[in-house]
Structures are given as C-alpha cells and as structure tokens.
Amino acid sequence: MSTSKISRFELHHVADFLPYPFIIAEVIDGVHYNTFLNEKFKMEIGYTLEEIPTIQTWYDKAYPEATYRDKVIKSWDQEQINSNQEGKLFVRGKSLITCKNGMKKWYQIKASVLDKIHVVSFVNLDKEITLQEKLKSINSNNDRMLSVLGHDLRAPLINLREISSMALDYDLSREEFTGFIEKINNQTAHVLDMLDTTLNWSRANFNAITVSKVTIDIEQTINDILKVCKNDYEAKNIAITASFDTKTLNSDLEIVTIIARNMITNAIKFTPDNGEIKITFSDNLLTVSDNGIGMSENMIQSIFKRQYVSKRGTNNEIGMGIGMQLMQNLCEKINAQIKIESQSKKGTSISLHF
C-alpha cells in the first residue's frame, strides 16, 4: 500500500470521529470529485456520495436557487483569491445550505488544501444566526412600537384634548355643542381603532397570540364588524353588500375577526363617497372588493415585502401602516393565504383563503 493511500485512509478514519460534517474531495484533471463524506455529514446534512459525486452536484443540491447559488460561488471564489494573496492554506466562508430534508441551515464552511486533496468542514451556525435575526426583529419591533405610541397615537389624543378644551372654554349653542360631540366621538373611535390595531400587531410580532380553532359563524362575524364600522361607511354614503354561500368556518375566531376587520376598514378608507363594497364568502374564501382608488403593482409588491407605507384615505383618513403587516402575520398563524388584485383608480379586491 502506498504512502498516499495510507494517508487517505487515515484521513477518512479521523474524519468519521470528528464532531462536524466533513467532505473530502480530490482534484483530478481539473474536476473536484468528492471522495468521502463522514458519518456526521450524512446524519446532519443528509446527502450521500452518490448524490453529490462532484463539487458542482454539491452546489446544485445545497443551493437549489440559482441566484443564491451564483452568489455563493462568486463569494467563495473571491475568498480563494484573498487566501492565496495572504498565503493561507485554507478558505473560509458562510452560507445558507439546503439539507436533503429541505431544511435550510447556516454553516461556516472551511476548506483546507493538502496537495490535491481538499478537506471541507461545516460548522453549524444556525442557532447563532437565527438568534441574531430574532434580536434584530425584536429591536425593530420595539422601535416601531415606540414610534406608533409616540406619534400615531399621541396626535389624535392631542386633537381630542383641544376639541374638548374648546367645548369647555366657549359658550356654545346646542348645534355647536352637538358638532363638538360628534368630533370627539369620531376622534375617540379613531384612537380606539388605532390602539386595537397596535396591540394586536405587537402581540402577533412578539408571538403572544395562540391559535384556538372553533366553528365560526362567519356571517355573524362580518355583520358584527359592519355594525362597528357603520358610522364610517355611512358618513361616506358607501353601499355595502354581503353574501355567504356557506356560513361557517373552522378557524380561530379572534384572528379571523381581526383580519376581516382590517380588510373591511381598508376598503372603507380607500373607497370614495357614494362608492360600493362587496363582501363574499364561499368555499373557505373570504373576499372584500371595492371600487376605490386602487393600487399599482409596485404598491402590491411592497405589501408582500412588508415595506408598505400607509397612505391617507379618500376622506383624508390616516393610518399607521401596520394593518397590512398585522394581516400577513396573522394569516401565517392560521395557515391562510392572502391575495390582492387591484387597478389604480378602479378598485381593489383582497381575498383570504382559509
């Protein structure tokens, strides 16, 4: 037995006892052939040698999305150039690997070169990176919550105080007093709605909402929401029709109510005076359609990317910009899919499939 064969055998033997996944590869005629996968690799990442005989097949399996695969390869090639310039005998990188079972995990990858043999180790970073992303999300949520509480809720409360102060400071006629009371009532309803949305959004983002499925009377639920919104759509003389082919739904009552309320209040907000809103429920599909101002394709994409910035409604109604994010977060919790179809100046249809 030659020295090289003894060395390779010993290398394989040692790799099987190491706590990290390893690939051992060999360059033959310019092609990187994988010659050995240790037991930890097979257990944790899952592929067999027959499935990834070369580095190219490894790339195809580990990075199935072409754009990300190209990005990883370019980054790795650059790291090789940097290592050569610095006189290092290893190359190190970090990437999100797709395992055989479909799970995606972050790994630090280190390749050491021994003549034509490449020893590649994989250190699992998934917990650390997931924790970092979670902390970023928490910090972002904290910042957003402070912004909402500091501005979006404070502004209408200041207006409410000013209106009530004027009512106290002046000798008002009955008609003037009634006008002030109407303003106070509208501002109070607006503050309560914003507070309700804020609290539900924060609960959804901080995982405080638990799902409890029950049989829901969807017709009764929608009618209850319309009663709460009655002043808003009657003030704009909006005609609302609702039809239900089926009247029950098996899901979480609180979550469905929050989502449906957001769908309806958004339709009211962006529908002009004398407009129309249609609500239908059939085959577990809830749809709210309006003939309002509509949205461009870019606006729809920004919603699904969670980059939507709230815009004022047709009667200058204000919003916090978190209603759509709240809907998306809650849809994920009950495994519902949301679909938006819209044309600028023609209207919007938002559907929710349970």
Description of the molecule:
The chain is an alpha+beta fold and 354 residues long. The chain has helices at residues 3-15, 39-44, 55-62, 66-86, 126-152, 154-169, 174-205, 218-235, 253-269, 297-304, 323-333; strands at residues 22-28, 31-37, 90-98, 104-114, 117-124, 213-217, 239-244, 248-252, 276-282, 285-290, 337-343, 347-353. The chain contains 11 helices and 12 strands. A 5-stranded antiparallel sheet has the order 2-1-5-4-3, with helices on both faces. A 5-stranded mixed sheet has the order 7-9-10-12-11, covered by helices on one side. Strands 6-8 form a two-stranded antiparallel ribbon. Helix 5 runs antiparallel to helix 7 (174-205), helix 8 runs parallel beside helix 9 and helix 9 (253-269) runs antiparallel to helix 11 (323-333). It starts with a helix and ends with a strand. The model is unreliable at 1-6 (pLDDT under 50).
